[in-house]
């Protein structure tokens, strides 16, 4: 569920980090400051990308392939070009620059030229004076295909003919840690499958391209990484980057990089060809066909433990289906392999990981990529071990949990806070919800909903546990850097930073940082475009750390500029002065003035960068300090299962999370609740079905997102505020960890209720049916 940062209406969260009536500041860090755009979004007046308009506007439409794999024999655009109102038709032959794109690997064509590699791949684009005309013209383009057999099973990709000039194997990581001959007294094995989850943004992709007098173009799009999008567009158009400008507008909430660059690039081509503004708003079907999805994954596991339940060795094989193009598959595989053992101490680990191309829809970055898939598998293995040893599932986990100072199977020492045991004990000891028999029958909410056909006698309750971990920022040597400028004049501060707020709350955080540092209440965050220095993509909690760190450093530099003249005048150091509620005072009370008086009409500004400590790529044996930091989460799920019908209702999810520091309590709770809800969707309903490579039911009727009625009670029982000393403010990212952990917890609870293996996500009804006798 991609409404990131928004709490679902029916969720109820409680925090036990402090008493409910504990005082919180009204502004600055630690306050529940309301987002500046909250009222506009609530009233429906916020201008999203689909609301854009320009004088002389043309409308665009894309022709997409109906086949997952085919050779293009011929493309005839004559009928479309001749239609009244059509202003331009472009294909691969009309691209003046790079014909391929990709944020990480440039292997994806803007338009398919010779071969179609997935269902929905763009073939051509049309610009016309009416959206209906554009769609009819796109449909009128004649494409002669030689249909080829698609490779849709990732296991077959190893021996199949190459689907791409770069081959079918994108990456192989063989992780070797410890003694391969080590063995435990108890061994459990499992085979697991994770389905294809779509980001399903509430607002589909939209954008506007406007030609410039200098022969360049401006792209108004809901980008989450504008500078990368600008560079891709400039390369495609054969222009210098300074002649392409990306203006971020109307981001409707995103689970990181959910937008499709292949959707944006045709816009500029058409605008440059027609010398007119061109707008494109994707249908829901086009949105499903175009953007990347979570990697479907096949996992084989073998866990070894001693008689006391302590892990001895983990062996695993992990196969990621990348779909037609590489995108973020290399990074996703690195996370999957590195976290394949979970937040547990494992003396010996041998993991094989592969990411391969198929003719399935492209996979890419979705919150918790790689980590979510392996969490479902290793937690299922822990449940199997507990069952075989006759141990309580929570107790077995407590005997193996990771702590600060332990070593990951990658050889990296965990130097950040890792309060995994504390998190698990918190959810284990939290009161269980009442059983239906303890409430009036008319208040029972059975699996299947209020009008469900289930019988109370067929309901079984189950409790499951899961521990998850994610990495923060980029990994394996990624250069994480962001730049920010803070300006102050006439008692008003302005933050300029190209960090896109996709719903994670960066704009609100930036305001809080400046309020905290400069004591100025009125803080504005400038809109984002590529005239500003780069800040990088909006994913993995980057902007809280890197961009927030840059804003803090710039604000502190302005603070020094403000205080130095006063300190010099009174013969004291700036450290002896403090700013609170817009007033500057000295430690001894001699100096007392307002920020506005101290400014004396001047404008103060500073620009700063934040760059975390470097990481390194994993080597040929999967070893290396690949991650800047880690975050952890524990969830206890309670479910009711109708064992005759196989329907599941998640009653409650108790969450304990390692957050470093609470910067905005309301925003943090909303992030956790949204992440948990997305995980519930992955556990029970969300599966983009692609038989023979064809996306079936690419709409929100066929793709079952959890609604407010499907959302369980979410109890935030513990937020551990143990600050990470290397992170600005000590905070950790909030939303990815519950996305990773909640599907595994729900699956564990269904296992407990039914006694079934539950080795596939989402959980199919037949997997939860119990045959009597």
UniProtKB/TrEMBL annotation:
Protein name (record): Xanthine dehydrogenase family protein molybdopterin-binding subunit
Annotated signal sequence range: none
Organism of provenance: Streptomyces luteolus
Positions in coiled-coil regions: none
Residue ranges constituting the Aldehyde oxidase/xanthine dehydrogenase a/b hammerhead domain according to the UniProt record: 43-149
Pfam families in UniProt: Ald_Xan_dh_C, MoCoBD_1, MoCoBD_2
Record-linked InterPro entries: Ald_Oxase/Xan_DH_a/b (IPR000674), Ald_Oxase/Xan_DH_a/b_sf (IPR036856), Ald_Oxase/xanthine_DH-like (IPR016208), AldOxase/xan_DH_MoCoBD1 (IPR008274), AldOxase/xan_DH_MoCoBD2 (IPR046867), AldOxase/xan_DH_Mopterin-bd_sf (IPR037165)
Ranges of biased composition (kind: Low complexity): 1-20
SUPFAM superfamilies registered for this protein in UniProt: CO dehydrogenase molybdoprotein N-domain-like (SSF54665), Molybdenum cofactor-binding domain (SSF56003)
Region (Disordered): 1-38
Domain of life: Bacteria
Family annotation (PANTHER family): XANTHINE DEHYDROGENASE (PTHR11908), XANTHINE DEHYDROGENASE SUBUNIT D-RELATED (PTHR11908:SF157)
């Amino acid at each position: 569920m991609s409404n990131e940062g928004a709490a679902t209406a029916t969720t109820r969260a409680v925090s036990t980090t402090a008493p409910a009536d504990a005082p919180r500041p009204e502004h600055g860090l630690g306050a529940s400051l309301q987002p500046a755009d909250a009222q506009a979004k609530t009233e429906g007046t916020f201008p999203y990308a689909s609301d854009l308009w320009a004088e002389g506007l043309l409308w665009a439409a894309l022709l997409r392939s109906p086949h997952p794999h085919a050779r293009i024999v011929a493309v005839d655009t004559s009928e479309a070009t001749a239609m009244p109102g059509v202003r331009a038709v472009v294909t691969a032959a009309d691209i003046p620059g790079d014909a391929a794109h990709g944020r990480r690997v440039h292997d994806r064509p803007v338009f398919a030229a010779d071969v179609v590699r997935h269902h929905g791949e763009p073939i051509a684009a049309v610009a016309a004076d009416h959206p209906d005309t554009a769609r009819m013209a796109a449909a009128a383009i004649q494409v002669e295909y030689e249909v080829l057999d698609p490779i849709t099973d990732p296991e077959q990709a190893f021996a199949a003919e190459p689907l791409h000039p770069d081959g079918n194997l994108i990456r192989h990581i063989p992780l070797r840690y410890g003694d391969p001959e080590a063995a435990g007294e108890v061994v459990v094995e499992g085979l697991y499958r994770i389905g294809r989850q779509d980001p399903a943004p509430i607002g589909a992709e939209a954008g506007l391209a406007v030609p410039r007098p200098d022969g360049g173009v401006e792209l108004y799009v809901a980008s989450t990484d504008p500078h990368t999008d600008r560079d891709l567009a400039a390369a495609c158009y054969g222009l210098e980057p300074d002649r392409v400008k990306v203006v971020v507008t109307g981001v409707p909430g995103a689970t990181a990089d959910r937008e499709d660059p292949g959707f944006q690039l045709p816009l500029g081509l058409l605008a440059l060809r027609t010398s007119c503004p061109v707008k494109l708003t994707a249908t829901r079907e086009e949105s499903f066909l175009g953007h990347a999805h979570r990697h479907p994954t096949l996992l084989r596991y073998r866990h070894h433990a001693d008689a006391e339940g302590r892990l001895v060795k983990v062996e695993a094989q992990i196969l990621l289906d990348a779909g037609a193009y590489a995108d973020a598959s290399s990074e996703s595989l690195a996370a999957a392999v590195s976290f394949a053992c979970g937040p547990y101490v494992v003396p010996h680990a041998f993991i094989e990981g592969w990411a391969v191309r198929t003719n399935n829809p492209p996979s890419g970055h979705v919150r918790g990529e790689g980590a979510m898939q392996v969490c479902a598998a290793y937690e299922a293995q822990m449940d199997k071990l507990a069952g075989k040893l006759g141990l309580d599932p929570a107790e077995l986990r407590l005997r193996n949990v990771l702590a600060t100072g332990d070593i990951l199977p990658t050889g990296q020492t965990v130097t950040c806070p890792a309060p995994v045991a504390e998190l698990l004990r918190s959810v284990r000891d939290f009161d269980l919800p009442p059983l239906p028999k303890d409430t009036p029958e008319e208040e029972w909410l059975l699996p299947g909903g209020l009008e469900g056909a289930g019988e109370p006698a067929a309901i079984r309750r189950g409790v499951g546990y899961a521990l998850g971990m994610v990495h923060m920022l980029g990994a394996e040597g990624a250069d994480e850097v962001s730049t920010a400028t803070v300006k102050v004049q006439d008692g008003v501060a302005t933050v300029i930073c190209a960090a896109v707020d996709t719903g994670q709350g960066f704009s609100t955080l930036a305001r809080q940082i400046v309020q905290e540092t400069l004591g100025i209440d009125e803080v504005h965050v400038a809109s984002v475009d590529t005239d500003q220095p780069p800040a990088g993509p909006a994913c993995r909690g980057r902007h809280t750390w890197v961009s927030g760190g840059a804003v803090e450093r710039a604000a502190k530099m302005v603070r020094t500029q403000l205080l130095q003249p006063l300190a010099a005048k009174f013969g004291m150091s700036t450290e002896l002065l403090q700013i609170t509620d817009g007033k500057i005072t000295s430690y001894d009370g001699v100096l007392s003035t307002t920020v506005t008086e101290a400014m004396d009409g001047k404008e103060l500004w500073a620009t700063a960068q934040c760059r975390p400590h470097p990481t390194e790529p994993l080597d040929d044996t999967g070893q290396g300090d690949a991650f800047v930091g880690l975050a952890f989460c524990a969830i206890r799920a309670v479910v009711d299962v109708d064992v005759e019908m196989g329907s599941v209702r998640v009653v409650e999810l108790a969450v304990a999370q390692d957050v470093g520091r609470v910067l905005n309590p309301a925003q943090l709770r909303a992030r956790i609740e949204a992440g948990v809800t997305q995980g519930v969707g992955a556990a029970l309903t969300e599966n983009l079905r692609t038989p023979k490579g064809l996306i079936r039911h690419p709409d929100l009727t066929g793709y079952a997102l959890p609604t407010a009625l499907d959302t369980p009670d979410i109890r935030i029982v513990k937020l551990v505020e143990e600050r990470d000393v290397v992170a600005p403010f000590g905070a950790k990212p909030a939303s990815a960890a519950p996305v990773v952990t909640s599907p595994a917890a729900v699956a564990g609870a269904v296992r407990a209720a039914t006694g079934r293996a539950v080795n596939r996500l989402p959980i199919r009804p037949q997997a939860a049916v119990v045959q009597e006798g």
